[in-house]
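Reopening this one. Same input as before:
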Amino acid sequence: MTGATGSGRWLGTRGRARRNRLGLLAALLVPVLAHANRDLRFRMEVALLAHEAHRALAGQPPPRLVARITSDLGILGFEARSYCVRAGCRMGPIAARIRVARAALRQGAMSVVWRQMRALRREFPMDFRGLLPLSTGGRRWREGRFLYSRLCATCHAAAGPGSPVPDLFALARKERPADLIVEIQAGVRGTRAIGYANPLSSREVAAIAGYLAAPHRGAGPGTPAVGH
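Same output, byte for byte:
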């Protein structure tokens, strides 16, 4: 009995020590993961705004797009401050570019907004490792088809002329792969388009983008070609 009790105490001590080590590891990882999340969100906001400002350069931008850019500039300022607190970067130069972009937006000078966001995107680029280049065939394509049917098709398969819901396949043919990935991750504010930066892994986001960008023969709006 004494040996068993001693063994139990020893095992209990080992268990507590293991739990303590895991607790310490979790405490160390939480700030790291929080910083990684802030880093992603800030860089994603920069990339999304650069993409939206570039879209707004073509002709007269729709009022909804201008309103979205105005809102996104406010969110960018918040994300930049949160990121710089954790990363130790200087907020001043970032805030200056945001102020210039806001003033330009009020004056309708979208080209200035685009230049400011493009400069920020160059300084704080997204990490597309594991996402680019897109794979438009094989297992990744089949995974993308499954995810599209589960997450996107309910709304986007019915897209057509005059529909407020965009045809994702047509969108993927027009946009740069990097911009397509950012939109899948960030969503489109002011609409029902959900961002999948957290629920989906990088592999799954890349699978959806690769499926959308794959060649489609004889497909109607929002409709995959034969074999999709």
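So the earlier flakiness isn't reproducible anymore. For the record, The chain has nine helices and no strands.
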